[in-house]
Write a structure and sequence with these properties.
- The chain is mainly α and about 220 residues long.
- About 85% of the residues lie in helices and about 0% in strands.
- It has a single domain, classed as Phosphate transport system protein phou homolog 2, domain 2 (Methane Monooxygenase Hydroxylase, Chain G, domain 1).
- The longest helix has about 35 residues.
- The chain is elongated, with a radius of gyration of 19 Å.
């Protein structure tokens, strides 16, 4: 392939990493909003979502243009296919940050509840998974990508624990159902965020190894 083609691939890589940094910042803000119940911060996350959407569309258009003009094969084709999928997952993570912000905004406007669930551990783990998945892309590190995939079950477990405790709280505080439902939905959005981070890691593994490892059907390399 020509030097021009390689420069276009480098441009795509820089764009996806820029989007990744933007999404990481939104996730960090969402975690902070959960912790502080800051309605103003939540509103800031919601109103800035357009920037992620616009960049996601731009990256997809660039990838499709390269596919049409250069018809790449082998590892270059895998790279573009992986980037298109990672691009979509990053946009969806941005959506989950917005969903979390919307729940926080509702919670922040309600009276002081009798039940509080601490999501800091779950949010931190989801943040870590996103950072690790992006680091695995930057460094083409399949071992780090596999670690991300194994962390997904831990997030699922925390979500189940949250569900059990909040369900019990609903029976004790039926007058606070709206608050408790929105509190539980935060765990669902964090879980989905972690799922998308896992998808990114799986695409990195595909990019490096040429193997599809979706649905966790893999052996973690030593």
């Amino acid at each position: 392939m020509t030097g021009h083609f390689q420069r276009e691939l480098e441009k795509i890589k820089k764009m996806i990493l820029s989007l990744g940094a933007m999404v990481e910042e939104r996730v960090r803000m969402a975690a902070q909003a959960i912790d502080t119940k800051d309605a103003e911060l939540a509103e800031k996350i919601i109103t800035s979502d357009y920037a992620i959407d616009e960049m996601e569309v731009e990256i997809e258009e660039e990838c499709l243009k390269i596919l049409a003009l250069h018809q790449p094969v082998a590892v270059d084709l895998r790279f573009l296919v992986a980037i298109i999928k990672i691009n979509n997952d990053l946009e969806r993570i941005g959506d989950q940050a917005v969903n979390i912000a919307q729940r926080v905004d509702i919670i922040a406007r309600q009276k002081s509840p009798d039940f509080i669930y601490d999501y800091s551990a779950m949010a931190e783990k989801a943040e870590t998974m996103l950072k690790m998945s992006l680091d695995s892309l930057v460094n083409l590190d399949d071992h780090l990508a596999y670690k991300v995939v194994t962390l997904d079950d831990e997030v699922d477990l925390i979500k189940q624990q949250a569900y059990d405790l909040i369900k019990e709280a609903m029976s004790r505080h039926p007058d606070q159902l709206s608050y408790l439902i929105n509190l539980f939905l935060i765990s669902r959005h964090l879980e989905r965020l972690a799922d998308h981070a896992t998808n990114i890691a799986e695409e990195v593994i595909y990019l490096i190894e040429g193997e599809i490892v979706r649905h966790h059907k893999f052996m973690n390399p030593s």
